[in-house]
Amino acid sequence: MFETEAALAWPAMPYRAPVYAADTSEIGSAESLLGDEDADIFHGIVVKRREDRKLVEIPAVRIKKITAAGVLTDLGSDDVGALQPYREERWYHIGWGGLFRKHPEWDRTSGT
């Protein structure tokens, strides 16, 4: 299925594209991209898992190919149930030119 499909850059991933495990069984649908488009840094995707409709994260290192037909991962069936729940994070620019990931529940004044 994915052998003949042309690969897409991560920002071009179709909204709600089907997401597949390594054996091409459907995991769920892609709901969001995780990354910094300006810096071209791809962190992964948020997937609505098919089995329980929960939002989970798939890190970029587990994604093998993005096409117009869907997203292929290297996940096995055991891996799908163990995916981390999606947690919204905020990005903050720090003085020396890097980015810092910050969880919303963290105190904005700590560490300043």
Describe this structure as you would to a colleague.
- With 112 residues, the chain is mostly beta strands.
- The protein has a domain at 10-87: PRC-barrel domain (SH3 type barrels, Roll).
- The chain has one helix spanning 77-81, and strands at residues 18-20, 26-36, 41-49, 55-59, 63-67, 70-73, 90-93, 99-102.
- It has a 6-stranded mixed beta sheet with strand order 4-3-2-1-6-5, with no helix packed on it. It has a two-stranded antiparallel sheet with strand order 7-8.
- A hairpin with a 2-residue loop joins strand 5 (63-67) and strand 6.
- The chain is globular, with a radius of gyration of 16 Å.
- The termini are far apart.
- Residues 90-112 have low confidence and may be disordered.
What's the helix-strand series? EEEEEEHEE
Shape estimate: globular
- List unreliable stretches of 5+ residues: 90-112
CATH superfamily of the domain at 10-87: PRC-barrel domain
Radius of gyration over C-alpha positions, nearest whole angstrom: 16 Å
Oligomerization category of the chains in this entry? single chain
First-residue to last-residue Cα separation: 50 Å
The number of strands is: 8
Query: What is the level-2 CATH architecture name of the domain at 10-87?
Result: Roll
Mean pLDDT: 81
Structural class based on helices, strands and sheet pairing = mainly beta
Strand line-up across the major sheet: 4-3-2-1-6-5
Largest beta-sheet characterization: 6 strands, mixed
Strand content: 35-45%
Portion in helices: under 10%
Helix run count: 1
CATH topology of the domain at 10-87: SH3 type barrels
